[in-house]
UniProtKB/TrEMBL annotation:
CDD domains: HTH_ARSR (cd00090)
Domain of life: Bacteria
MF annotations from Gene Ontology: DNA binding; DNA-binding transcription factor activity
Pfam families cross-referenced by the UniProt entry: HTH_20 (PF12840)
Positions of the UniProt region annotated as Disordered: 107-127
Transmembrane feature ranges: none
Name of the protein in question: Putative HTH-type transcriptional regulator
Keywords per UniProt: DNA-binding, Transcription, Transcription regulation
InterPro entries reported in the protein's UniProt record: ArsR-like_HTH, HTH_ArsR_DNA-bd_dom, HTH_MetalResp_TranReg, WH-like_DNA-bd_sf, WH_DNA-bd_sf
Segments forming domain HTH arsR-type: 17-99
Protein backbone atom coordinates (compact mmCIF):
# COMPACT_ATOMS: atom_id res chain seq x y z
CA UNK A 1 0.00 0.00 0.00
CA UNK A 2 1.44 3.37 -1.04
CA UNK A 3 1.57 6.18 1.47
CA UNK A 4 -0.64 9.09 0.54
CA UNK A 5 1.29 12.23 -0.38
CA UNK A 6 0.46 15.30 1.63
CA UNK A 7 0.20 18.69 -0.01
CA UNK A 8 3.17 20.90 0.80
CA UNK A 9 2.67 23.50 3.51
CA UNK A 10 1.78 26.85 1.95
CA UNK A 11 4.31 29.64 2.13
CA UNK A 12 3.38 32.56 4.32
CA UNK A 13 2.74 34.75 1.29
CA UNK A 14 0.55 32.11 -0.40
CA UNK A 15 -1.47 31.54 2.78
CA UNK A 16 -1.91 35.29 3.21
CA UNK A 17 -3.17 35.61 -0.39
CA UNK A 18 -5.72 32.82 0.13
CA UNK A 19 -6.95 34.19 3.46
CA UNK A 20 -7.16 37.72 2.07
CA UNK A 21 -9.08 36.50 -0.96
CA UNK A 22 -11.57 34.55 1.16
CA UNK A 23 -11.81 37.30 3.79
CA UNK A 24 -14.41 39.19 1.77
CA UNK A 25 -18.09 38.17 1.62
CA UNK A 26 -18.38 39.09 -2.08
CA UNK A 27 -15.47 36.84 -2.99
CA UNK A 28 -16.91 34.01 -0.89
CA UNK A 29 -20.18 34.38 -2.84
CA UNK A 30 -18.27 34.30 -6.13
CA UNK A 31 -16.49 31.06 -5.15
CA UNK A 32 -19.83 29.59 -4.05
CA UNK A 33 -21.48 30.50 -7.36
CA UNK A 34 -18.59 29.10 -9.38
CA UNK A 35 -18.70 25.89 -7.36
CA UNK A 36 -22.10 25.21 -8.93
CA UNK A 37 -20.87 25.81 -12.51
CA UNK A 38 -18.30 27.73 -14.50
CA UNK A 39 -19.47 31.06 -15.84
CA UNK A 40 -18.42 34.16 -17.75
CA UNK A 41 -18.22 37.63 -16.22
CA UNK A 42 -21.45 39.15 -17.55
CA UNK A 43 -23.62 36.17 -16.59
CA UNK A 44 -21.93 35.82 -13.20
CA UNK A 45 -22.39 39.55 -12.53
CA UNK A 46 -26.13 39.22 -13.20
CA UNK A 47 -26.37 36.07 -11.10
CA UNK A 48 -24.80 37.57 -7.99
CA UNK A 49 -26.03 41.14 -8.52
CA UNK A 50 -22.69 42.90 -8.93
CA UNK A 51 -21.32 45.30 -11.52
CA UNK A 52 -18.86 43.83 -14.01
CA UNK A 53 -15.91 46.08 -13.11
CA UNK A 54 -16.18 45.23 -9.41
CA UNK A 55 -16.68 41.54 -10.19
CA UNK A 56 -13.65 41.56 -12.48
CA UNK A 57 -11.54 43.06 -9.67
CA UNK A 58 -12.68 40.33 -7.25
CA UNK A 59 -12.08 37.59 -9.84
CA UNK A 60 -8.56 38.88 -10.46
CA UNK A 61 -7.79 38.65 -6.74
CA UNK A 62 -9.29 35.14 -6.49
CA UNK A 63 -7.34 34.07 -9.56
CA UNK A 64 -4.11 35.48 -8.09
CA UNK A 65 -4.70 33.43 -4.96
CA UNK A 66 -5.16 30.28 -7.05
CA UNK A 67 -8.79 29.81 -6.02
CA UNK A 68 -10.35 30.32 -9.45
CA UNK A 69 -9.01 29.97 -12.98
CA UNK A 70 -10.05 31.84 -16.07
CA UNK A 71 -9.85 30.63 -19.65
CA UNK A 72 -10.56 32.49 -22.86
CA UNK A 73 -12.91 30.83 -25.31
CA UNK A 74 -14.35 31.89 -28.65
CA UNK A 75 -18.14 31.92 -28.66
CA UNK A 76 -20.30 30.90 -31.63
CA UNK A 77 -20.66 34.56 -32.64
CA UNK A 78 -16.87 34.95 -32.79
CA UNK A 79 -16.53 36.98 -29.59
CA UNK A 80 -13.88 36.01 -27.05
CA UNK A 81 -15.37 35.24 -23.65
CA UNK A 82 -13.45 34.57 -20.45
CA UNK A 83 -14.96 31.77 -18.40
CA UNK A 84 -14.10 31.31 -14.74
CA UNK A 85 -14.30 28.19 -12.63
CA UNK A 86 -13.20 27.14 -9.17
CA UNK A 87 -9.72 25.67 -9.02
CA UNK A 88 -9.41 22.54 -6.90
CA UNK A 89 -8.03 23.60 -3.55
CA UNK A 90 -7.76 22.37 0.02
CA UNK A 91 -6.14 24.45 2.71
CA UNK A 92 -5.74 23.11 6.21
CA UNK A 93 -5.50 25.91 8.74
CA UNK A 94 -3.99 24.98 12.07
CA UNK A 95 -1.74 26.80 14.53
CA UNK A 96 1.17 24.65 13.31
CA UNK A 97 0.52 25.56 9.65
CA UNK A 98 0.44 29.26 10.56
CA UNK A 99 3.63 28.88 12.62
CA UNK A 100 5.47 27.37 9.66
CA UNK A 101 4.00 29.82 7.17
CA UNK A 102 5.13 32.83 9.20
CA UNK A 103 8.74 31.75 8.74
CA UNK A 104 8.46 32.36 4.99
CA UNK A 105 6.53 35.65 5.03
CA UNK A 106 8.05 38.37 2.91
CA UNK A 107 5.16 40.80 3.49
CA UNK A 108 6.22 42.71 6.59
CA UNK A 109 3.68 45.54 6.68
CA UNK A 110 3.11 44.87 10.38
CA UNK A 111 6.81 44.39 11.07
CA UNK A 112 8.74 41.15 11.06
CA UNK A 113 7.47 38.29 13.15
CA UNK A 114 10.34 36.38 14.70
CA UNK A 115 10.00 33.09 16.47
CA UNK A 116 11.84 33.15 19.77
CA UNK A 117 13.24 29.66 20.23
CA UNK A 118 14.69 30.36 23.67
CA UNK A 119 11.51 31.42 25.48
CA UNK A 120 8.72 28.97 26.14
CA UNK A 121 5.57 30.21 27.80
CA UNK A 122 3.56 27.81 29.91
CA UNK A 123 0.18 28.26 31.55
CA UNK A 124 1.97 28.90 34.84
CA UNK A 125 4.07 31.68 33.27
CA UNK A 126 0.94 33.38 31.97
CA UNK A 127 -0.62 33.66 35.46
Amino acid sequence: MMAEEQAPEPTGDKLLKVLTALGNPHRMRIVAALTERRNYVSALAREIGMGRPLLHMHLKLLEGAGLVVGSLEVADDGKTVKYFEVAPFLHELTPAVIHEAVRTLTDTREGPVKADKTTHTTKEDAK
